[in-house]
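Supplementary notes for students who missed Thursday's class. We covered one full example, reproduced here. Read the sequence, then the structure, then the short commentary at the end.
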Amino acid sequence: MQEKEIVIIGAGYGGLRAAEHLCKKSQFHITLLDKNPYHYMQTELYGYIAGRFDMSDIAIDLESFTRGLGENVTFVQEEVVDIDAGAKEVVGRQKRYRYDYAILAAGAQTNFFSFIEGLREHTHGVKSIQRAFAFRQAFEKRLADKLQNKTFHRAGDLHIAIAGAGLSGVEIAAEMAYTLKRYEKILAQCSKRLMISLIDAAPTVLPGMDPYLIEKAHRRLEALGVQIRTEAFIEKIDARSITFRDGSEVAFDFIIFTAGIKAADLTEKLDTPKNSTGQIIPNDALEVKGYPGLYTIGDVTQIFDSSGKILPPTAQIAEKSAAYVADRINRQETGTSCKPFDAKMDGIFIALGGKYALGILYDKIRVEGYLAYILKKIITCFYRMGLEIKVNAGYRKRNLPSR
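Structure (token representation):
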């Protein structure tokens, strides 16, 4: 039997999960493409930015990972620029990759809104590891200077502004505020001049989430000293200040932008229905309309549940859509039927600084504090452990002595 060629575009949560499922079938040869040589664990970003995690805690080597999956999986560091539906080829900058099936898992990027003057030039996005690293370096250098010289002269002398009070913004604000609180004994009264602001145009933090999470998160952020500013519409950002629509201004030292995402640029090349942020709107089997054999999963996709509700772009939904597409491809090859995609969120956990978190499981079970922190930690550890098993196996294979 001739091998079927499967090309996976993107090595995020969905792309890796799809590869893990498909590699179990020997009749498939899987090529995993990504412009970066690593997988970036964005769910742990809050700890990395605050200095609690290292680079090794949020990234894994993709070549070792794919070697650990088996001989029928290949990783290629490649930037995909187009997909040729007629030829059934993925077009990369280096070469073309023929496919019988392809899975688009290219993810999302920070949406630097054009209507906010100076947004792209003066803010740090966090969807790429390079931007997160640049911010962490700049922040740690500034804090080290302050610690050494105690050159604080006024309240807010070191002011970190976070624009966007969704999940990423709230987690980053909480973890950074908790980190700064740990410096209180060193800085004494100067510590009061360290300030973190969380800004959003919505009326609450975590807009659209369960009221329990909104209320508890708001209280926790306030307890950590985070200055929360809601219903605040940013009009302009320059090198050191934010100007709001009402004419007021706030000075800052660093600003992180987490208030919007859009699909990867690749979607602009595809002649298929998309929403206003470039996410592909597929059919109910997650197949891209007009591109036979091309499936789309994760953040690059507008995914609905069976009731027509749009599911949030989370790692959990990316992995569920990946598992579905892998199963559907296998069923197509074996001639068995497959139901339309249907999934829902099993739960959500929010890290809120130190060993404190919030969570809701199956829409019913509410957990808070240390217990929620432990549950979130367990979930992350299991995910990380699964990756490391493959990475270590692949590393050993690569370093076996030749005969």
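Commentary. The chain has a mean pLDDT of 87. The radius of gyration is 22 Å. If anything here is unclear, bring it to office hours.
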